[in-house]
């Protein structure tokens, strides 16, 4: 683990632990409705101050909390065009399968690569610390996966170039 990754993940973990204190909160407008306040934003007093945790200018996490939900938006490291393309394709692949991940949103927030929405129902059905561990594990693994895919693409390109140049 890199020297800047550990404090970054520690900050994300402690912020998520604090933001996961969620309660059931019925809608103030419509009877018997319960929607994530972080999404509908009907009243300001139910929203917490959003927290942006940055590792560098491109890698960051936005944690938006409310009384009954938390939205976690993640921007993944993209150093060059290959990583940018791989990240975009990989995130699109993940978001198409959002129903399998339960807490994954189908569409990311503007300026971020992927978003999670955790409601009070999720924290009632699952352990809070396991949800936090899942998000952190996801953040660690996504970097590894994109790096491995980039190495595979570069190796394949090298092999193709060698085969092409053998003819000359």
From TrEMBL:
Location in the cell: Cytoplasm, Cytoskeleton
GO cellular component, one term: Arp2/3 protein complex
Gene3D superfamilies reported in the protein's UniProt record: 3.30.1460.20
Annotated GO biological process: actin filament polymerization; Arp2/3 complex-mediated actin nucleation
InterPro entries the record matches: ARPC2/4 (IPR034666), ARPC4 (IPR008384)
Pfam families: ARPC4 (PF05856)
Transmembrane regions listed in the UniProt entry: none
Keywords recorded for this protein, A-Z: Actin-binding, Cytoplasm, Cytoskeleton
Keyword Repressor: no
GO molecular function: actin filament binding
Keyword Cytoplasm among UniProt keywords: yes
Main location: cytoplasm
Job description of the protein: Functions as actin-binding component of the Arp2/3 complex which is involved in regulation of actin polymerization and together with an activating nucleation-promoting factor (NPF) mediates the formation of branched actin networks. Seems to contact the mother actin filament.
Protein name as catalogued: Actin-related protein 2/3 complex subunit 4
Protein's organism: Cimex lectularius
């Amino acid at each position: 683990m890199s020297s800047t990754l550990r404090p970054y993940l520690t900050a994300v973990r402690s912020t998520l632990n604090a933001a996961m204190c969620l309660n059931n909160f019925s809608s103030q407008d419509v009877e018997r409705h319960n929607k994530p306040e972080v999404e509908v934003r009907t009243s300001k007093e139910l929203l917490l101050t959003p927290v942006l945790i940055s590792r560098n200018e491109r890698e960051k996490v936005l944690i938006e909390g409310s009384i009954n939900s938390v939205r976690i938006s993640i921007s993944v490291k993209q150093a060059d065009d290959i990583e940018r393309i791989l990240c975009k394709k990989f995130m699109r692949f993940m978001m198409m399968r959002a129903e399998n991940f339960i807490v994954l949103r189908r569409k990311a927030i503007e300026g971020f690569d992927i978003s999670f929405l955790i409601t009070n129902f999720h924290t009632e059905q699952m352990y809070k610390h396991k949800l936090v561990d899942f998000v952190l594990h996801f953040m660690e693994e996504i970097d590894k996966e994109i790096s491995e895919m980039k190495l595979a693409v570069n190796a394949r390109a090298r092999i193709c170039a060698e085969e092409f140049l053998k003819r000359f």
